[in-house]
Structure formats: C-alpha cells, structure tokens
Amino acid sequence: MLKLNIKNETSRLRAVILGTAKSNGGIPRLEDCYDPKSIKHVLAGTYPKESEMIEEMEMFAEVFKKYDVQVFRPDIIEDYNQIFSRDIAFVIEDTFIEANILPEREKEYKAIGKVISQINKEKVVVLPKECHIEGGDVMPWNEYIFIGTYSGSDYADYITARTNIDAVIALQELFPQKKVKSFELRKSNTNAKENALHLDCCFQPIGKDKAILHKNGFLIEREYEWLVNFFGEENIFEITKEEMYNMNSNIFSISEEVIVSEKNFTRLNTWLRENGFTVEEVSYAEIAKQEGLLRCSTLPLIRD
Asked: What is the pTM of this model?
C-alpha cells in the first residue's frame, strides 16, 4: 500500500505520478481546446509534435530518477492527451482527492487506477458533484491550503474557470484543522496573457519561505498583497506578464533545495541559484504551448 503524505509543495519528494505524452491524439480541433494558448498554437500551426513532447517528459523523468523518486505513469489511452496529471487529482496529508474535472477528461482519472488501487480506500475522496476543482488550483502549505477560484456570476461562461467556491467550502470541511485561503483569479477564454488558468499559473511557494508571484493573475489586489505580506517582499520573485504567459511560476520542487525549471527561464533560474537553490534545467517549451508546464504534469503522492 502507498502511504500518502503531502503537507506542502517543497518537502523532499518520494513518489509522484508523471503524465505521459504518448499517443497524444495529434492536433486537437479548435472546439476541443480547453485554453486560449492551445487555441493560439492550433491557429498558428505551431501546436507541439508528440515526439517532441515525449522527449521533454522523458527528460523530466530522468531528473526524478537522478533523485531516486518513485515515478508512476498512467495507462496509455489511444489518441488522448494525458500530459497534465495535476488536473485529475491531488493529495493533502494522507488523503487522495479526485478532482471534479471537465467531463471530457474523466478517462484520465481511470488511467491511474493501478495507483489508486494501492491507496487505502477510506483515504480516497470524491467531492460532491457541485464542487468543481482541479489540482492546479490546490496548494497545501503546512497549516494552510491555498486555493485558486473564480466566483463571478459568469463562472459558467469560462472554460478556463476550473475551481468554484463550493469546492473551497468542501475542502475546509474535509480539513477543519487547516486554514483554507482562496484567491480569485483573472480569467479569459481568448487571451492567454490575461488568463490565470490555475493558481500555479501566477503563484508558487518554493524552498522554506519564498514564492514566485504574478500580480495581474489575481483579480483582487488585497489577496495578492496578503501573499506578499505572508512571504515577505524580499522573498518574492515577481514575474512579468510575458514570463507568466511562458509559465515561469509553473516549475516543480523536488525538495526545499532542488527545483526543476525550464531552461529558457533565464532570469528566474539565475535568481534561484543566487538564492541557494540547485536548479535542474529541462526543455519543456513545447508542452508549455498547452498552457501547462512542470507542476501541471505531476501529481505528488509522497513527500517527507
């Protein structure tokens, strides 16, 4: 049996589900795209090739191997996008929570059945149907759970709005000992530079006390300011709109000292090294064209 344990984003990683780009299904139809960035690349003829995405994900898998992390991969569904395993479920403490994702993506959850079968059934939770939530919006941070949400009356109009207030309330009830803190995110179906698809598109804690932030991803300034005060201005790396678009906040922590980052994130990677982090650089620019990066393609199961 797997003894799940996730208390935060940065403790030493021991086991993870990494998505797969195999049998990816080729270029999607416009009406099947879930985000404005994918739409842009389909229209421009620059949508990523499967072979290149497989290569990028294997490079990521090699880094996990280097740090002796147990890696699970989903069963392959023919002609289907299974890269972003973060969306389909998440772990808080010792509890595995199925995300209520876009109905079109339920097959992805079934494809990790062999992992779920190794978890104590009493620790696998399915939230009520009215709760919409995806793992990219959920960040355990010790006594806190940070959650990205959108509560506008036009929620249903946004395919980019993935987590609602019902889900925030459900997680507070599930973890009464935690402080659940939600953040309203900026949404756009058409402009990727004005769209924070998930919380990890504009914020991520790193190390013990630092964070990457993008102010414009937050709809309410005082919620952004709360994070600045919480981490301290001197501990924050503020990314530009262009860096947010390129997914600079969507890196991945193997430990408090080791971060996997995209090799083109020059400014960020320099800052990380100056602040004492070991940076493992990989190529992930093709996968980034689907508005997801390193954190999006992982589902951590066990950290120290």
From this structure: 0.92
